[in-house]
Amino acid sequence: MSDGHLVKAKIRRLEPYSEEIECMFNPREYTITKANNWGKDPNSRENTENITFQGGGTAQLTLELFFDTYLNQKTPSDVRQHTDRLWRLMEIIKPPGASNIDKGRPPKVLFQWGNTWHFNAVILSMEQQFTLFMPDGMPVRATVKVQLQQTDHETLKPGGGDRTSVISNAVRASGQTGDGRKLPQFKGLPSK
Protein backbone atom coordinates (compact mmCIF):
# COMPACT_ATOMS: atom_id res chain seq x y z
CA MET A 1 0.00 0.00 0.00
CA SER A 2 1.05 3.64 -0.19
CA ASP A 3 2.93 5.49 2.49
CA GLY A 4 -0.19 7.48 3.40
CA HIS A 5 0.27 10.24 0.83
CA LEU A 6 -2.61 11.07 -1.47
CA VAL A 7 -1.97 9.67 -4.94
CA LYS A 8 -3.32 11.89 -7.71
CA ALA A 9 -5.12 10.42 -10.70
CA LYS A 10 -3.49 11.21 -14.04
CA ILE A 11 -4.34 11.18 -17.70
CA ARG A 12 -1.29 10.64 -19.86
CA ARG A 13 -1.03 11.36 -23.57
CA LEU A 14 0.76 8.41 -25.16
CA GLU A 15 1.37 9.68 -28.69
CA PRO A 16 3.01 11.29 -30.63
CA TYR A 17 4.74 12.50 -27.46
CA SER A 18 4.20 11.84 -23.78
CA GLU A 19 2.46 14.41 -21.59
CA GLU A 20 1.09 13.85 -18.10
CA ILE A 21 -1.98 15.74 -16.91
CA GLU A 22 -2.42 15.44 -13.16
CA CYS A 23 -5.99 15.80 -11.92
CA MET A 24 -6.41 18.76 -9.54
CA PHE A 25 -8.78 16.62 -7.48
CA ASN A 26 -9.25 12.87 -7.67
CA PRO A 27 -12.57 11.64 -9.06
CA ARG A 28 -15.24 11.04 -6.44
CA GLU A 29 -16.27 7.95 -8.40
CA TYR A 30 -15.96 6.40 -11.82
CA THR A 31 -18.01 3.93 -13.81
CA ILE A 32 -16.81 1.12 -16.07
CA THR A 33 -19.22 -0.45 -18.55
CA LYS A 34 -18.69 -3.28 -21.01
CA ALA A 35 -21.08 -5.17 -23.26
CA ASN A 36 -20.73 -8.31 -25.35
CA ASN A 37 -22.05 -8.49 -28.90
CA TRP A 38 -24.79 -10.99 -29.67
CA GLY A 39 -26.45 -11.62 -33.02
CA LYS A 40 -29.91 -12.99 -33.72
CA ASP A 41 -30.61 -15.85 -36.08
CA PRO A 42 -34.17 -16.28 -37.31
CA ASN A 43 -35.76 -19.50 -36.12
CA SER A 44 -38.88 -20.58 -38.01
CA ARG A 45 -39.51 -23.61 -35.77
CA GLU A 46 -39.45 -21.95 -32.34
CA ASN A 47 -41.11 -19.00 -30.62
CA THR A 48 -37.79 -17.27 -29.99
CA GLU A 49 -34.79 -16.38 -32.09
CA ASN A 50 -31.45 -18.08 -31.59
CA ILE A 51 -28.70 -15.83 -30.39
CA THR A 52 -25.04 -16.31 -31.24
CA PHE A 53 -22.04 -14.73 -29.62
CA GLN A 54 -20.26 -12.38 -32.01
CA GLY A 55 -17.44 -11.06 -29.85
CA GLY A 56 -16.58 -9.04 -26.83
CA GLY A 57 -17.08 -5.31 -26.78
CA THR A 58 -14.66 -2.76 -25.45
CA ALA A 59 -15.01 -1.30 -21.98
CA GLN A 60 -15.85 2.35 -21.38
CA LEU A 61 -14.74 4.44 -18.42
CA THR A 62 -16.79 7.47 -17.42
CA LEU A 63 -15.56 9.92 -14.80
CA GLU A 64 -16.06 13.47 -13.66
CA LEU A 65 -13.06 15.69 -12.92
CA PHE A 66 -13.23 18.81 -10.78
CA PHE A 67 -11.00 21.85 -11.38
CA ASP A 68 -10.83 24.84 -9.05
CA THR A 69 -8.35 27.73 -9.14
CA TYR A 70 -10.32 29.85 -6.66
CA LEU A 71 -9.76 27.83 -3.49
CA ASN A 72 -6.57 28.48 -1.52
CA GLN A 73 -5.28 31.15 -3.90
CA LYS A 74 -4.91 34.87 -3.27
CA THR A 75 -5.16 35.55 -6.98
CA PRO A 76 -7.31 32.98 -8.81
CA SER A 77 -6.30 32.09 -12.36
CA ASP A 78 -8.38 31.10 -15.37
CA VAL A 79 -9.40 27.46 -14.85
CA ARG A 80 -9.20 26.92 -18.62
CA GLN A 81 -5.39 26.88 -18.29
CA HIS A 82 -5.90 23.44 -16.73
CA THR A 83 -8.92 22.12 -18.65
CA ASP A 84 -7.59 23.14 -22.08
CA ARG A 85 -4.87 20.51 -21.66
CA LEU A 86 -7.63 17.87 -21.59
CA TRP A 87 -9.34 19.36 -24.62
CA ARG A 88 -6.09 19.06 -26.61
CA LEU A 89 -6.38 15.29 -26.12
CA MET A 90 -9.46 15.43 -28.38
CA GLU A 91 -7.59 17.12 -31.26
CA ILE A 92 -6.77 15.15 -34.39
CA ILE A 93 -3.06 14.50 -34.88
CA LYS A 94 -1.12 13.04 -37.77
CA PRO A 95 1.68 10.63 -36.99
CA PRO A 96 5.19 11.92 -37.77
CA GLY A 97 6.06 11.13 -41.39
CA ALA A 98 2.41 10.68 -42.42
CA SER A 99 1.47 11.74 -45.93
CA ASN A 100 -1.20 14.31 -46.69
CA ILE A 101 -3.67 11.55 -47.60
CA ASP A 102 -3.20 9.72 -44.28
CA LYS A 103 -6.04 10.45 -41.92
CA GLY A 104 -5.14 11.63 -38.46
CA ARG A 105 -6.88 10.77 -35.22
CA PRO A 106 -6.84 11.88 -31.58
CA PRO A 107 -4.05 10.36 -29.48
CA LYS A 108 -4.28 7.29 -27.29
CA VAL A 109 -4.23 8.07 -23.58
CA LEU A 110 -3.73 6.28 -20.29
CA PHE A 111 -5.87 6.95 -17.21
CA GLN A 112 -3.97 5.90 -14.10
CA TRP A 113 -4.66 6.25 -10.42
CA GLY A 114 -1.81 4.85 -8.36
CA ASN A 115 0.09 1.71 -9.31
CA THR A 116 -2.78 -0.77 -9.02
CA TRP A 117 -4.91 0.02 -12.07
CA HIS A 118 -4.76 1.76 -15.43
CA PHE A 119 -7.02 2.18 -18.44
CA ASN A 120 -5.54 2.39 -21.97
CA ALA A 121 -8.03 4.32 -24.04
CA VAL A 122 -9.06 7.00 -26.45
CA ILE A 123 -11.31 9.83 -25.34
CA LEU A 124 -14.80 9.45 -26.81
CA SER A 125 -16.36 12.59 -25.40
CA MET A 126 -15.89 15.44 -22.97
CA GLU A 127 -18.38 17.86 -21.49
CA GLN A 128 -17.22 20.90 -19.54
CA GLN A 129 -19.37 22.96 -17.19
CA PHE A 130 -18.13 26.23 -15.65
CA THR A 131 -19.65 26.85 -12.23
CA LEU A 132 -17.83 29.84 -10.66
CA PHE A 133 -16.71 33.11 -12.22
CA MET A 134 -14.78 36.21 -11.19
CA PRO A 135 -16.54 39.59 -11.56
CA ASP A 136 -14.87 40.07 -14.97
CA GLY A 137 -16.34 36.76 -16.23
CA MET A 138 -13.16 34.67 -15.93
CA PRO A 139 -14.09 31.06 -15.03
CA VAL A 140 -12.31 29.74 -11.93
CA ARG A 141 -14.19 26.48 -11.30
CA ALA A 142 -15.20 23.74 -13.74
CA THR A 143 -16.36 20.16 -13.91
CA VAL A 144 -15.32 18.02 -16.89
CA LYS A 145 -17.14 14.77 -17.67
CA VAL A 146 -14.86 12.44 -19.64
CA GLN A 147 -15.81 9.22 -21.41
CA LEU A 148 -12.95 6.95 -22.48
CA GLN A 149 -13.06 3.79 -24.59
CA GLN A 150 -10.67 0.90 -23.99
CA THR A 151 -7.99 0.26 -26.62
CA ASP A 152 -6.10 -2.60 -24.96
CA HIS A 153 -7.52 -5.89 -23.65
CA GLU A 154 -4.99 -5.80 -20.77
CA THR A 155 -6.58 -2.60 -19.46
CA LEU A 156 -8.90 -4.15 -16.91
CA LYS A 157 -6.29 -6.38 -15.32
CA PRO A 158 -4.93 -4.83 -12.13
CA GLY A 159 -1.17 -4.45 -11.86
CA GLY A 160 0.67 -6.15 -9.03
CA GLY A 161 -1.50 -9.24 -8.66
CA ASP A 162 -4.40 -9.03 -6.26
CA ARG A 163 -3.39 -5.66 -4.77
CA THR A 164 -6.63 -3.97 -5.81
CA SER A 165 -8.78 -6.21 -3.64
CA VAL A 166 -6.30 -5.87 -0.77
CA ILE A 167 -6.44 -2.08 -1.07
CA SER A 168 -10.24 -2.07 -1.46
CA ASN A 169 -10.61 -4.22 1.65
CA ALA A 170 -8.25 -1.94 3.58
CA VAL A 171 -10.23 1.14 2.52
CA ARG A 172 -13.50 -0.48 3.59
CA ALA A 173 -12.00 -1.59 6.91
CA SER A 174 -10.55 1.85 7.70
CA GLY A 175 -13.65 3.77 6.69
CA GLN A 176 -11.42 6.30 4.85
CA THR A 177 -11.10 6.78 1.08
CA GLY A 178 -7.49 7.94 1.19
CA ASP A 179 -8.24 11.56 0.32
CA GLY A 180 -9.75 12.50 3.66
CA ARG A 181 -13.34 11.45 2.99
CA LYS A 182 -15.13 8.98 5.22
CA LEU A 183 -17.01 6.09 3.68
CA PRO A 184 -20.76 6.21 4.34
CA GLN A 185 -22.23 3.59 6.64
CA PHE A 186 -25.29 1.70 5.46
CA LYS A 187 -27.67 -0.56 7.33
CA GLY A 188 -26.78 -4.19 6.96
CA LEU A 189 -23.14 -3.52 6.08
CA PRO A 190 -20.40 -4.09 8.62
CA SER A 191 -18.83 -0.93 10.00
CA LYS A 192 -15.46 -0.41 11.54
Features:
192 residues, mainly beta, Elongation Factor Tu (Ef-tu), domain 3, two-stranded antiparallel ribbon, extended, disordered C terminus, Contractile injection system tube protein N-terminal domain-containing protein, CIS_tube_prot_N
What does this molecule look like?
With 192 residues, the chain is mainly beta. It has a single domain, classed as Elongation Factor Tu (Ef-tu), domain 3 (Beta Barrel). It has two helices and nine strands. It has helices spanning 80-87, 163-174; strands spanning 9-13, 19-22, 30-33, 36-41, 50-56, 60-68, 109-113, 118-133, 139-150. The protein has a seven-stranded antiparallel beta sheet with strand order 2-1-7-8-9-6-3, with helices on one face. Strand 7 and strand 8 form a beta hairpin. It starts with 8 loop residues before the first strand and ends in an 18-residue tail after the last helix. The relative contact order is 0.19.
Distance between the termini: 19 Å
| Strand and helix order | EEEEEEHEEEH
How much of the sequence lies in strands comes to 35-45%
**Strand runs, count:** 9
| Overall mean pLDDT | 82
Please give the order of strands in the largest beta sheet. 2-1-7-8-9-6-3
In CATH terms, what is the architecture? Beta Barrel
Evaluate the radius of gyration: 21 Å
At the first level of CATH, what is the class? Answer: Mainly Beta
SS-derived structural category: mainly beta
User: Per the principal axes of the C-alpha atoms, what is the gross shape?
Assistant: extended
Low-confidence stretches: 158-171, 186-192
Give the number of helices: 2
Helix fraction by DSSP (H/I, runs of at least 4)? 10-25%
Which fold name corresponds to the CATH topology?
Elongation Factor Tu (Ef-tu), domain 3
Give the biggest sheet.
Answer: 7 strands, antiparallel
InterPro entries: CIS_tube_prot_N
Domain Contractile injection system tube protein N-terminal: 16-155
Protein name: Contractile injection system tube protein N-terminal domain-containing protein
Region (Disordered): 171-192
